[in-house]
Write a structure and sequence with these properties.
With 102 residues, this protein is mainly β. The protein is built from no helices and ten strands.
């Protein structure tokens, strides 16, 4: 299991792939697979079969996981996608002159 630099609820920006440049909130984190699920990014269409009586079936749009290396944390202070540093046990913005602690 690897330590993740992103936590649920963080705002991230996608840095590669078909959704490059899109910002969204992290819904779920999977440290074992090193993947994250971001709201509104990497949306797939899933066919759902009705299981119970009266339940609706059809097509459902679901966010699927993407590798954590494809996203960067967005600093709330400077508003830029940034690498994450660590200082005194806290995450720190690495942009020059910012140094905001998450």
């Amino acid at each position: 299991m690897s330590k993740m630099f992103v936590k649920s609820g963080d705002t991230v920006e996608v840095i590669s792939g078909k959704s490059k440049g899109v910002r969204g909130e992290v819904i779920a984190v999977s440290p074992k697979e090193n993947k994250v699920i971001v709201k509104g990014v990497n949306v797939a269409t899933k066919h759902v079969k009705p299981r119970k009586m009266g339940e609706q079936g059809g097509l459902v749009k679901v966010e699927s996981a993407l590798y954590a290396s494809k996203v960067q944390l967005v600093c709330p202070k400077c508003g830029k996608a940034t690498r994450v540093g660590h200082k005194d046990g806290k995450r720190v913005c690495k942009q020059s002159g910012c140094g905001f602690e998450f």
